[in-house]
Amino acid sequence: MPAPRWLAKANRSGFNRIIRLIAPWAPGFGVVINRGRRSGRTYRTPVNVFRREGGFVIALTYGRESDWIKNVLAAGGCQLQTRRRRHELTSPRLYHDDGRQGVPAPVRLALGAIQVYDFVALDIARPALTAATMGGMQTWDAITSRRNVREYDDRPISDQDLDRILEAGRRAPSSRNWQPWDFVVVTDRQQLQELSKVWQFARHVANAAATVALVAPEPANESERDWIQYDLGQATMSMMIAAADLGIGTGHASIADQQLARDVLRLPTDRFCAYLVALGYPRKPLRPITTPNRRPFEDVVHRGHW
Ligand SMILES: Cc1cc2nc3c(=O)[nH]c(=O)nc-3n(C[C@H](O)[C@H](O)[C@H](O)COP(=O)(O)O)c2cc1C
Q1: pTM above 0.85, yes or no
Q2: pLDDT (tens digit per residue) in 227-239
Q3: What is the pLDDT of residue 118?
Q4: Pocket of ligand 1 (CB under 6 A)
Q5: Distance between alpha carbon 237 and the CA centroid of its chain, in Å?
Q6: Which CATH number applies to 139-280: 3.20.20.30, 3.40.640.10, 3.40.109.10, 2.30.30.40?
Q7: For the chain, how long is the longest CA-to-CA vector?
Q8: Distance 148 CA to ligand 1 centre (A)
Q9: I want to staple 253 with a disulfide (CB 3.0 to 4.6 A). Which of 124, 169, 190, 202 is the partner?
Q10: How far is the CA of 292 from the centre of ligand 1 (A)?
Q11: What is the tens place of the pLDDT at every residue in 230-273?
Q12: How remote is the CA of residue 254 from the centroid of ligand 1, in Å?
């Protein structure tokens, strides 16, 4: 039994205000910044938090039914402010620990007094590209680590990470900057399973955490058709590199059954689905590939003339 409801109520009215003031910096405390599952509003929830290898453990003082933890699970992560620093956290995992072994001894006693046995462990997200880190090895690592990933583990992709990948696509260059693309993001399992039937080599879409459908206008002529293919290719690669940078795998899928894709995605009649990009944490983590299965460099590269 977690802390009683009356304590939650009392905390909300008075105690929490004090905790909220000290939580961003005081040892053992933190503020979980989470987004409402339905409202989309941002909430700042004070918590008891403890560092552990590669991440943090947070005590579920009011149990597993608190809204904030449901928000974090739904989003696949959150931000945490603690000791005056802000961390991006991913992969929330609930667990029950009668002995409260994951927390320091004095806190173990305090949490025991209010019968807290449930916790959530989260990992610190790999730092994504920022202006400060671009141009160094991180970009190169993302480029050399990307490969087609068709087997994913069960982890969801956080909303922040998904948005970053989509933003990378949105920023792609295009002919005359006409930006012919729309991106339809699918995370619903049933919809993913339906989408995976659009082509015999799209089966990986069924098990992906998410899939981005690249949608374009029906081309008016051959030139437009060529531009669309080139431009969507650039958007695809930007998204794939941004995903690789986050440790997220991607897999292309072509479309054979255009009508099925249109139906699943509910596309307007003047649009078609050009490709799918499946996303998910790879069963085998991404690592820079030292010997890629590509034609030899000297065979591909011509200097000055053919
Ligand atoms: C235009 C295009 C369409 C592709 N279609 C599919 C597909 O339908 N299914 C699939 O499993 N892989 C697809 N791929 C992935 C390629 O097979 C893959 O990129 C290639 O074999 C190189 O492997 P790598 O990406 O792991 O380096 C596609 C790639 C491109 C560029």
Answers
A1: no
A2: 999 999 999 999 9
A3: 92
A4: 147-148, 150, 199, 201-202, 251-254
A5: 17
A6: 3.40.109.10
A7: 79
A8: 7
A9: 202
A10: 14
A11: 999 999 999 999 999 999 999 999 999 999 999 999 999 999 99
A12: 8
